[in-house]
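Researcher: Good morning. I'm working through a list of sequences from a screen, and I'd like to move beyond sequence-only analysis. For each chain I'm collecting a predicted structure so we can compare shapes side by side. This is the next one on the list. No need for commentary yet; just the structure.
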Amino acid sequence: MIHIDPNLYTQAPTPEGREEREMRVYQFLDTHAVPYRRLDHEMADTMEKCEEIEKVLGAPICKNLFLCNRQQTQFYLLCMPGDKPFKTKDLSAQIGSARLSFAGAEHMLKYLDIRPGAVSVLGLMNDTERQVKLLIDEDLKGTEDFACHPCVCTSTLLIRTEDLLNHFLTATGHTPQYVKL
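Model: Good morning. Structure tokens for this chain:
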């Protein structure tokens, strides 16, 4: 059981006690007029811990996987429903990349400025050279809201899927490739 502040906030927190990477997310969202609701909580770095947060938010939190090819020359951020199992071979065939594996923490930091346990689509704002390809499971297209961490795993943001796809991703220059898992 993790402690969750039951309040939903619609603005950035004060910077005291917050990581700079988290504060940059709020600044980016505010600059690009992407509204969000924020829920603060203890560290939630696993999907099991996120289940408790989902109950408070009333929306599912996406599973975000940072992947790479065997040569570590191509990187992918996969967003999928949290309760869906991930099978590498199902994805490999669709994107034409064999031998996918989980990318290391050093690559997460380099490309997304994120540490393990906080991987999120919001980290794409840090990928200014667009080295990471965004993959989104088709099942997420029809969801009303998209819940994810703001590059740290002590808060979760609820963003309208439409705003994420049409405003946030446009601002980052990333175009999603939809996959069926």
